[in-house]
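Bit of a strange request maybe. I'm writing a small parser for C-alpha cell strings and I need a real example to test against, not something I typed by hand. Could someone generate the C-alpha cells for this chain?
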Amino acid sequence: MNLRVLVLSHNAFSQTQNNGKTLESFFQKWDKDSLAQIYLQPEEPDFSFCDNYYCMSDYEILNYYISHGKIGINVKNDNTQAVNLGGTVRRLYEQKAQERENRRGLNAYIHKKFVERKPAFVLAREIMWKHARWNTEELTGWIADFNPDVLFFQGSSCSFAYEIADSICSIFHIPLVLEL
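Reply from user aminoacidic:
Good idea to test on real output. This should exercise your parser:
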C-alpha cells in the first residue's frame, strides 16, 4: 500500500493484547514503512509489525502536573522505558509494571477507580489531558517526519483522545478515519 497511515489508539500494535491484535489485523497488508502509531498506554509495541511509534501516557500527564515533566516519547526498539517520569509518579508506574495482577496501595486504588469508571476519576483524567501540553514540538516533528496521508483513530470512551485526533488532523490537514 502506498498510503501512509498514522494510527492513534490507546493500545500499541500487539500480537498478544486484544486491541493491539485487532489493529494489526486491520493493517496486515500494509508495508511496515507506511505505518506509524501514537498510543496512550505505557506498553511495549510490536516492532515486528511497525517501527515508528510515539507513546504518551496517563503517567506522563500526571507527572506533568506534579513535576512539570515531559509528555511523550519516540519509542525505539532499544528503549527500555517508554515513559518520562519523575520520582513520585515513577514509583506508581514501577509498582504497576511489577504487580499487574497484584496491585497494592495507591496504585490499586487509582486503577480500580478508572476500571470502574468512577465519575470523579474520569473527569479528573479528562481535565488533566485537556490542559496538559501534550502537543509538543517533538510530537509535531515526529508526525511531520512521517508525513501521514490519513489518521486512523481507534475511538474510545475518552473525549481527550478525540481532541488529540482532531488536533492532529487540523494541524496536518489530513482526513480522519474513525473505528469505533
